[in-house]
Amino acid sequence: xxxxxxxxxxxxxxxxxxxxxxxxxxxxxxxxxxxxxxxxxxxxxxxxxxxxxxxxxxxxxxxxxxxxxxxxxxxxxxxxxxxxxxxxxxxxxxxxxxxxxxxxxxxxxxxxxxxxxxxxxxxxxxxxxxxxxxxxxxxxxxxxxxxxxxxxxxxxxxxxxxxxxxxxxxxxxxxxxxxxxxxxxxxxxxxxxxxxxxxxxxxxxxxxxxxxxxxxxxxxxxxxxxxxxxxx
Length: 232
Hints:
By secondary structure, the protein is mainly α. The chain contains 11 helices and no strands. Helix 2 crosses helix 8, helix 3 (about 60-80) crosses helix 7 (about 140-150) and helix 5 (about 105-125) runs antiparallel to helix 9 (about 180-190).
């Protein structure tokens, strides 16, 4: 089972780096890799193989530029000491909570850290979900569909079905509440494993995430500053 194929849900952390940009194609591009994996984890899109196909179309180029910034932000984040330190600490805290379940603690700590960062961005009003969704809603859908087709995705219905539901649900604002972060984490794990946590396990996970968010609060912004400087 390949956990790398499962889509992430830390959309606001990627949006943070484009928060002052009002180009909807760039904004969609910066979250498109995760949107696609959430829509269908088995669809593998590799735009860098088709870069020359986007020439001459500004909207396609902006989607591609956003995609590249997403990939580079992830690469930097997943190789940063910040990531190694906090996923290790979260793994130690969360492992007892999911002991006896199929959930892999290293995977759990990874997604928990990402969603806690989204939570902290919301709590400190570093991003606003309404701005994020407004940018997504304003995108040229024909350009997005053409981008996917040019990347040799044979049909795009699966993506726009998910994209429409994503816009309707507008769930990322719910990450202000720790119980909703817990539910999101469990939901992602259920895509990989047949798992049902007890009420006690769920409550312990929420308590652990609440505690760890308080520890992260003091210096979480440093990783965003580092990535932003790197992307610049």
